[in-house]
Structures
1.
Amino acid sequence: MNTEWIAVDWGTSHLRAWAMQGDAVLDQAQSVKGMARVDKGGFQAALFELIEGWLGTAPLEVIACGMVGARQGWVEAPYSAVPCEPTSVAPFRVPGTDPRIRAFVVPGLKQTAPPDIMRGEETQIAGFLASRQNWDGVICLPGTHTKWVQISAGEVVSFRTFMTGEMFDLLGGQSVLKHSIGEGWDDAAFAEATADAMSKPEQLAARLFGLRAADLLQGQDGGVIRARLSGYLIGAELAATRPYWLGQQLAIIGAESLSEVYAKALQQQGAFLETANSTKCTLAGLQQARNLTRQTA
Amino acid sequence: MNTEWIAVDWGTSHLRAWAMQGDAVLDQAQSVKGMARVDKGGFQAALFELIEGWLGTAPLEVIACGMVGARQGWVEAPYSAVPCEPTSVAPFRVPGTDPRIRAFVVPGLKQTAPPDIMRGEETQIAGFLASRQNWDGVICLPGTHTKWVQISAGEVVSFRTFMTGEMFDLLGGQSVLKHSIGEGWDDAAFAEATADAMSKPEQLAARLFGLRAADLLQGQDGGVIRARLSGYLIGAELAATRPYWLGQQLAIIGAESLSEVYAKALQQQGAFLETANSTKCTLAGLQQARNLTRQTA
């Protein structure tokens, strides 16, 4: 194995690393040592658990994106202010590392009004745009904190973050709905709930309790409840983001199953969209960021 | 002490009991042995921890309301279907108790379309109406699961439950907002957030993340964030319940501090309302329920 550099996606809850040769993946590894679970002095050790076997005598570049660049992360990589290119600033060098690596962290993006921030998605966006000349439109990045990002002339013009995914996890896992929700899925229930929430988003808290009440009174399939919960939350989000996606060129970058759910909801509304694999986008974006370190090194 | 009967409010998380002589409170006690924390066979023991000192040789009536009447409770007290009086059916006798008590559980209410349920609030409503002849209007009972209840000619005509309180607890205590929320309160921030959510309820998930982003970018007072979170959630609820409260005679029954928050939000919208003490309403309602057991005994 002839590892040329190491790509790292280091989020709040997970750490993923790839041994790279140019843009080819030679090996990969992951752990649950996300940023939130690592002490200030423990980042290099957490990473080395995954990558030590890839290291040689010559120092390898490590390019990391995600929450690892937050103040409480490995090195603080201050946000770039939009409008700007998704990776406009060279990654920040992590000081004092083991001599077998030269580690860099990609800065996130911030927006002043309305206040918003991202860390990690900017790298996926850069990777997505790298293979598309003059792509203007809107990118949706579904996840715990779903981002809607307006792209024009290679720049992130504006973006909005929705706590939809985190709300789904909390409501499905820790509210009274945990007694009713189950595995599985129901497309019709999802479509109906999405449409309902788009027209009456103010009813969210009542619709949620209604799921529990319907189950207690009539019995409901756990997968139907799961689909409805998702539909109520995503429907409200689509109502809020209508100016973003209506009549725009649209792309979804995310994990496959969640991207499919968003794609279904948007296609029901007549939107045209493409989906892109988030891991591929991350790797392509980290490659872009790597080029920036070499220009400035 | 000459205890005549024992009033019990037995919710999901708490148990409260009062030694009563007519409508006068002689003594009170409480514990955290709510319905969800007691095994099927352990209800009498959990209650006796509080009331055993009040018991004599002659059997005392115990009248209980709340989740204790659920299927997994002390005895199942099946829901009455609305429209109906809030306590239209005699409480259900708990079989096989210690001979020093004769225990009864008040049934809850159910609504078929849209599906909804309550247990405990029906007793507060009965107590509220007991001292008001011919009161028609709408009662709001704020709490973990806030109820909006339409009253006409002494009957509960319809009601809706909102998961607003549970969402506030989950978002403030377990989402990414837990890092930003603090003690304290800010009336102006609450008013602004309420108005914003009433006009744009679909933006909820974005407004929530905006609280975190604003704190990270500019720093925010924890009490301001607390008030805004409350305002966003209650504002959406008020948008959904507008047909309930607009131009109606309105009463709020609940814990003092939460009732005040709802009263402020509604008064900002020009609503006229009275507030009633929830414990007093519960005791008056249990007294009503007790009269029903004696009529049918």
2.
Amino acid sequence: MTDDTREPPTVVVVDAKTPGNVGTIARAMKNFGFSELLLVDPPELDPDGEAYGFAGQARADVLPSAREVSFDHVLETYHTVGCTAVTNEDDRNHVRFPYSTPADLAERLPTVEGPTALVFGRERVGLTNEELARIDEICSIPANADYPVLNLGQAATVTLYELRDLALEDTQLPDVERVRAPEPALERLYDNWEGLLEELNHPEGKREKTMRMIRRVYGRADPTEREVNTFLGLLRRATERPDRRE
Amino acid sequence: MTDDTREPPTVVVVDAKTPGNVGTIARAMKNFGFSELLLVDPPELDPDGEAYGFAGQARADVLPSAREVSFDHVLETYHTVGCTAVTNEDDRNHVRFPYSTPADLAERLPTVEGPTALVFGRERVGLTNEELARIDEICSIPANADYPVLNLGQAATVTLYELRDLALEDTQLPDVERVRAPEPALERLYDNWEGLLEELNHPEGKREKTMRMIRRVYGRADPTEREVNTFLGLLRRATERPDRRE
């Protein structure tokens, strides 16, 4: 989040028929940090049924806090983003074009303050053209031209994944994906390889080229200190061959 | 795809318990252009059951073409990417760190030729540490630190969505998301607004500032020609007020 006071977008599900899909959406919301779920004409959500069964840990908060509201209430309260599988529409179609992709929204929404709702439609037919006509902007997930229609729960999962930075302060992942070994360790590694090449009587004329290749392989792999230490140990043993000593 | 001869990654599901998840994965594969599905220790996939029920149009191709193989076969045949919910691991953990995110893979995999498999584990426990240890690299979806564990079908959907460019030639979406109206149409629009301001006796001293604001709003919205034409018509009528003529 770019601003601590900003609320992440609200999620609205219109006229879902399958409780399992509502549960799947609640779980994705919790996985990606969203909390407010509004339901327009929802199916019955039995605490022992599929909605709660599919919700994972969202069964403890997102799902039981969901509120039933009218479509008009949503339009009056939020800037609405309608999610739909646009199919080859162009600028002659006012209702479904222009559209944004979830990745576009992920860039733009953090720069706008004001309450926003992501609106997902019913299974099979999605949001009707009449509903889309009343909505502020259209979002469409790029997919296979031959079969672009995602299942409702899967479409919401992809959209919420892309917009996670609007809702999550931190992810479970460390800030960095790799901690590259310190340069002195890497230089020691290359020294040890050179030592091994010498020990193996690798042709003098080829050593420079071989060393360049070795540096490039490790260079691309960004090895961690622990990984480098493992190689250092192996190279030392390969060079000294303590097992062969008398 | 960057190369017509390149095969998109194969999808491998290890020891899934729920046929519905296999169907969900097959559907996401079809939505994002993947076709080869391998199953290690799969549940029974009854043509009248949930796997086929959840597969959408993938019930006609991806799912019936799925082959049962051994985990060893996968390791011997492919560069394997194991998908798992890493939780705050760091460089002291050899098995789950370093990792890549799906977005990283989407950047790197198109630059590498060779058969690749995306490997998804069973529900609840995912891939075991023993399985991960035999795999070439780890992929992890950034999610809520308090609840990073996605449902199997949802994790596969997000990963395949991110990697769609490896499998799809084209999406259903037009090449452009907007076709901005031609500049002469936009200039006509601004002229008409100026005409309306004059007609409304908008204070002379404020006109320039108001026009700048109007240009900025339309400038950010990238309106289509059809949208501009709609405004042109409205402005003309607002300026001329034919309804007020005697």
3.
Amino acid sequence: MASSSFSAAASAATATISSSHRHQSLLLTKPFTHNSVLFKQPITLTTAPSLRPLKLRASSSSSVAPLDKTAAAVAAAPPPFPDFDFNAYMLTKAALVNAALDQSIPLARPLKIHEAMRYSLLAGGKRVRPVLCLAACEMVGGDQSLALPMACATEMVHTMSLIHDDLPCMDDDDLRRGLPTSHKKYGEDTAILAGDALLSLSFEHVAARTPSTVSPDRVVRAIAELGSAVGSAGLVAGQIVDIASEGDVDVTLEVSAHINKYINK
Amino acid sequence: MASSSFSAAASAATATISSSHRHQSLLLTKPFTHNSVLFKQPITLTTAPSLRPLKLRASSSSSVAPLDKTAAAVAAAPPPFPDFDFNAYMLTKAALVNAALDQSIPLARPLKIHEAMRYSLLAGGKRVRPVLCLAACEMVGGDQSLALPMACATEMVHTMSLIHDDLPCMDDDDLRRGLPTSHKKYGEDTAILAGDALLSLSFEHVAARTPSTVSPDRVVRAIAELGSAVGSAGLVAGQIVDIASEGDVDVTLEVSAHINKYINK
């Protein structure tokens, strides 16, 4: 149970990393059980910046034929989250994540790089990615402590991407969450290095901090998946697409068309 | 044997990453056996850019008291490498590493980022770090195939550090190994992203490509060690020291004093 819930969390986490910053939904295509109900249809978990309620809904354009028994069981079951308070859930989990992130980078020497890493990592935010990671773990019956290092890793990667994306040669932003961007506060050189250190720490954190009750082979697979989600076929590919599309008035919000257009250049 | 030799290789690899670019020596403090001789004293493997012969020598300032029997065995044994051709060894291993690096990044879409990654990674170099990794594996009786993914990872990390170090806000170099630096050829944005993708790939490569004969718990530990060697207490700390020391005429080649001086700021 520990290992399978960790794998679900890792998959959810890497799904959030490789998706767009605006694309805060998660498609689960593998069967899973929740509240004793077996879900066999593709399920989409959707969130938005406004923190609207989490919805569990079957895809209307499912490519998996529903089984009559499963459909009947789903129809007969009570609503999956009758008393679910999404806002409270998000805030509680975000507080847990914030505490873990705070502990993940002590203010050690050399001071400047650790200050810069902590400055950006602890500057706030809804912590959507790590909370989705914890939620995926809990959804399949796991204890959130199993997924907490991976949850923190997703936020470290996200923060790295923001620091580097804010640089003058990228989006050239002066402010992030109402505060000076990393390079405005610490200089471009330190900002780049803070991003590098956060990216490195994300992998180290999963490897060194995941509880030993998770089998090491699953940790290895999760690290491979994290790397794939971050690298040249994942997050970095998305950034390259952003650069390629700059100034292009034909770009629409249709992310798939957008990516197809530029990735296939 | 597979796992212990992998661990030795991983330790050697991370030792080369966290050391200075100029500091191409490796201190082995744990006992090991070579050519049926048990080495219990600290041993230093030293290389230099001029490819002078590899030396295996006991430390004169050993903090480990030699055992009489071991000392006698060492004295009676033949020279450890009577016919060792260091240059041929380096060239053979470098060719193996180059072939593996070439395969590690296919020229996939999006083309620009993969071109940039391959441009810097395959631009040449002595491959000292990966060869030391393979040598450490072989020294303790392992097959080099066990350590090859970690060896490649060290070169990916090294290349990332060079790309980011060459940027205008860092050392502002136009040439690297006789060719335009990454940002001169592809632009600063793509250069930063190519470094990010290489760093991410280094961890993914170890996780996904290390042979299954190496136990996953050792792979997890090696990834944690790699992260530690790269991050804010390793390679990035060294870069921060370089930035802090810029223009300081008091900086000497005494690396330890240098690091102590700046890391303790």
